[in-house]
Specification:
Helices cover 37% and strands 24% of the residues. It is α/β, with parallel strands linked by helices and 300 residues long. It folds into two domains: 125 residues, 2-Layer Sandwich (Nucleotidyltransferase, domain 5), CATH 3.30.420.40; 156 residues, ATPase, nucleotide binding domain (Nucleotidyltransferase, domain 5, 2-Layer Sandwich), CATH 3.30.420.40. A five-stranded mixed beta sheet has the order 3-2-1-4-7. Strands 10-9-8-13-14 form a five-stranded mixed beta sheet. A hairpin with a 4-residue loop joins strand 5 and strand 6. Helix 3 crosses helix 10. The chain is globular and about 55 Å long. Belongs to the ROK (NagC/XylR) family.
């Protein structure tokens, strides 16, 4: 059985896993990030890999390679983490450093959302002649497109759904979707509305599900913003399938039906085939490491 190490790097945590070529998760470890310094951050990545190997019966020499998902912009050919909002790695030669640490084996690097999308595309068994979109709603909002079996990259920065302007009813103005409706934005909106500094995004959804009607306007505003962004995807790509991931929506699956209702209000009948082909990921926090591991076996 072929195996690879998948690494999913974020500003808060680093996950490392051993993945089979069929996408089976053989072992997984997660540790906290240390974005205070570029070398400290790299040391945490090394520790995550060492821990996942230590907790298994495998050595790094048993692996067919390493796949790494990194936020922001990457140079895949040179193996460089070019730019990230939440990591101290501007122009960081990540692949060279990993090779120095773990030996000369196949190492592939890509944007973390692209890695997660590849895992979801694989799990969804999407056809090679289809257009598949993975949307993540979490601390940020982004998407990745797989068209005819290949990741669509544009000039290198495609899929930045969170940068789209939407009309926010709460702010009564145009705002970027991520600024208006990602996890931190929901928290700030609720804190301002209820004058409660300790109120978290998780609290908002918990209290809404418990029937607190005063939270309904926040849910309505946020989901309407998402629907505006998704309608752009519907119009521009007319995808066959959309899968949602990220902690905000994966932990609150009831949101999917609200999104569908709002999106339907924007769509014309010819676009509404998408409504029955929208789903929430079953992989949750594992899609990043699974996708990174699977990419070792694929030239995509």
């Amino acid at each position: 059985m072929k195996k690879a190490i998948g690494i999913d790097i974020g500003g808060t945590k680093i996950a490392a896993a051993i993945i089979s070529e069929t996408g089976e998760l053989l072992n997984r470890k997660e540790i906290k990030s240390d974005p205070s310094d570029r070398e400290k951050m790299f040391a945490r990545v090394v520790k995550a890999v060492e821990q996942v190997l230590k907790g298994s019966s495998y050595k790094v020499e048993d692996m067919d390679g390493i796949g790494v998902g990194v936020p922001g912009r990457v140079d895949r050919e040179q193996g460089i983490a070019v730019f990230q909002n939440n990591l101290p790695w501007a122009q960081f030669p990540l692949i060279d450093r990993l090779r120095e640490q773990f030996g000369p084996q196949r190492i592939t690097i890509d944007n973390d959302v692209y890695m997660a999308a590849f895992a979801e595309w694989n799990a969804a068994k999407a056809k090679n002649d289809e257009t598949f979109v993975y949307v993540t709603i979490s601390t940020g909002i982004s998407c990745s497109i797989i068209h005819n079996g290949s990741l669509f990259r544009g000039a290198g920065f495609s899929g930045e759904l969170g940068l789209l302007p939407v009309f926010s009813k709460a702010a009564k103005k145009l705002e970027r979707l991520e600024q208006a409706s990602a996890g931190p934005a929901i928290e700030k909106l609720a804190q301002k509305e209820f004058q409660m500094v300790s109120l978290s995004t998780r609290d908002v959804f918990k209290r809404y599900k418990e029937g607190a009607i005063e939270y309904k306007p926040i849910i309505n505003d946020v989901t309407d913003n998402w629907a505006q962004g998704l309608y752009s995807i519907s119009c521009l790509l007319d995808p066959h399938k959309v899968v949602f991931g990220g902690s905000v929506i994966a932990n609150n699956p009831f949101l999917l039906e609200i999104i569908k209702e709002k999106l339907k209000m924007y769509q014309i009948p010819e676009q509404q085939h998408l409504l029955s082909n929208m789903s929430i990921s079953n992989m949750k926090e594992n899609n990043g490491v699974v996708g990174a591991g699977l990419r070792v076996f694929d030239g995509n």
